[in-house]
Structures are given as C-alpha cells and as structure tokens.
Amino acid sequence: MRAVVASYLGLPYEATPRISGLADAATFWSDWSRWLRRHGYTIATYDFAPGHLKRWIAVVGRGHGAPLHAVLMSGTELLHDPMLGPDRLQRVEHSEVMCAIVIGPIGATDWSEAITQQISLAVSRGSPLVWCLEHLMDSQWGVGMYRLRGQLREAAAMERRLGLAEAG
Fold first, then answer.
1. Across-strand partners of 103?
2. Which residue among 121, 124, 142, 151 is least enclosed by CB atoms within 10 Å?
C-alpha cells in the first residue's frame, strides 16, 4: 500500500509511513486514515470498482489466505504494481479486486459523491466499466475495512467468526 499511495499522491516512497498490512493488521486502516488526514487527504472506499476512473487503487487477493496487495489502476487496467520480482502482477482480474479506494482532499466531499453518482449511473446502464466487489475475506484487515466503510455490524460478525470478539 505504501508504494501505491506514494505513486497515487506523487510523493517519494520515503515520504510515506511504514504501515504494513501484515505487521499492523489491526490498525492498518486507521493508521493510513490518520496519516492521510494529517496531509489533507481522506480515503473513500466503494462497493463497486470504479473502472470509469483514470486512477484508483485496487486491493487485490489471489485466493483465500493469500496476502492482499495494493495496485494502481487506470480504468479497468492495471497501471502500476509496485511489487518487484516474480510476484509482480501483469494484470488484474475483476474477481481479484477486494477493495476499491480513491484518495481525495479532506475538505471537500463533492469528488466522492460524484464518483458514487457515476458508479450508480454506470451500474444502471449495465456498463462493463464498473463491477460489484465480492464480500471481504475473513481477516483482521477485513474487519478494519468494514469499520472504515461504516459497516459495523459486518465488522462485528467477522470478528466473531475469527474469534477476535471479546466474550461478553
């Protein structure tokens, strides 16, 4: 995610925080949200992939239990995968996208509302440029993503399935 955020915002890699989905799974999204807020940005997530946008972040997974990975998309095509070596993705299948993210200015909401309206219109017209994302995989990362989306009931249910919920 770090390299993708740097590319998305046009920053040097070193200017972004060392937040790891593997090491910081429980606080991953809140850590990123906090850092972005301090720099004047916010994250918007969508239940549909915004393939009509020239630039957005896709969090992809290659099967249950496989690590999630962030890449930069342009429309429905992979624009940039910062991964080095043989694991670098050459393309992204619709079914691999677990989360769609757009970063925008924190002081305005019109950009996020416009994206939501464009997605709604594209879905109503049957456009192949947007597609519904699957349910999130059971993981601490998924719990955090549900919370970020405001889906607290889904987050609590996933915590129970994972055995993370405190007995009460």
1. 43
2. 124
What is each CA distance from 138 to 30, 94, 101, 155, 159, in whole angstroms?
Answer: 18, 19, 19, 10, 8
Instruction: Tell me the pLDDT tens digit for each residue of 127-160.
Output: 888 887 765 666 677 777 777 777 788 888 888 8
Q: What is the pLDDT of residue 168?
A: 44
Q: What is the β-pairing status of strands 41-46 and 97-105?
A: antiparallel
Tell me the H-state helices in 15-87. 28-38
Q: Residue for token digits 């405190």?
A: 166
| Residue among 150, 45, 157, 60 nearest 100 (CA) | 45
Q: How many CA atoms lie within 13 A of 161 on its CB side?
A: 13
SS3 category, 94: helix
